[in-house]
Write a structure and sequence with these properties.
Helix content of chain B: under 10%
Helix content of chain A: under 10%
Distance between the termini of chain B: 39 Å
Order of helices and strands of chain A: EEEEEEEEEE
Oligomer: heterodimer
Structural class of chain A: mainly beta
Number of helices of chain B: 0
Radius of gyration of chain B: 14 Å
Shape of chain B: globular
Shape of chain A: globular
Strand content of chain B: over 45%
Distance between the termini of chain A: 33 Å
Chain lengths: 108, 121
């Protein structure tokens, strides 16, 4: 399954709302869709699993939604530490795991 | 808290075999799928393959049979072997833990520190 993320780059100021999209080439079970944050020089960090469940320790300004082929990661009010690259990922179809190409959230 | 520590050769010659190992501490291999992911410089994430504690594996078909992932429960470690590497496979290689059931996927929640592997003569 191909995952296409948009936009490629999102330029926002701290305090603004961020909406990141992940579109699948075919339907994905919601229970098998995850989101990650990656900062330079660091391993990815799990944010959301099951499309809408926050991982342990993730602030509640991060939320996930969607079903079928359209999924969204929302950051209600972007904090300075949130500027990073975000990836969606599905588990299930062959290949068993695919990632989107990423959305870079940068400071405006 | 479960930790995963990666080790292995950081420089591999073209056509040779890349080998990496992840040691798991403060936790068991049982009940999880353990996975390898790589990231070429400046690019996105690519899944390589996964293994569970029974030794059941799934691989990315794009790697065309060059990849082998193994597990040693007695040593609490799992390993990646990628043969016939090319310079294009220079990347940061990560290992990670996943929780998977028939009805739910809980994501890659514990990651190794990453190993930068350079393929060069």
């Amino acid at each position: 399954i191909v995952l296409t993320q948009s936009p490629g780059t999102l330029s926002l100021s701290p305090g603004e709302r961020a909406t990141l999209s992940c579109r699948a080439g075919q339907s994905v079970y919601s229970s098998f869709l995850a989101w990650y944050q990656q900062k330079p020089g660091q391993a990815p960090r799990l944010l959301i699993y099951g499309a809408s469940n926050r991982a342990t320790g993730i602030p509640d300004r991060f939320s996930g939604s969607g079903s079928g082929t359209d999924f969204t990661l929302t950051i209600s009010k972007v904090e300075p530490e949130d500027f990073a690259v975000y990836y969606c990922q599905q588990y299930g179809a062959s290949p068993r795991i695919t990632f989107g190409q990423g959305t870079r959230l940068e400071i405006k | 808290q479960v930790q995963v520590q990666q080790r292995g050769a950081r420089l591999v010659k073209p056509s040779e075999t890349l080998s990496l190992t992840c040691d798991v501490s403060n936790g068991s291999l049982s009940g999880y799928f353990w996975t390898w992911v790589r990231q070429p410089p400046g690019k996105g994430l690519e899944w390589i393959g996964e293994i569970n504690h029974h030794g059941s594996t799934n691989y990315n078909p794009s790697l065309k049979g060059r990849v082998t992932i193994s597990i040693d429960t007695s040593k609490n470690q799992f390993s990646l072997s990628l043969s016939s590497v090319t310079a294009a496979e220079t990347a940061v290689y990560y290992c990670a833990r996943q929780t998977v059931t028939a009805y739910r996927y809980s994501g890659m929640d514990v990651w190794g520190q990453g190993t930068t592997v350079t393929v060069s003569s």
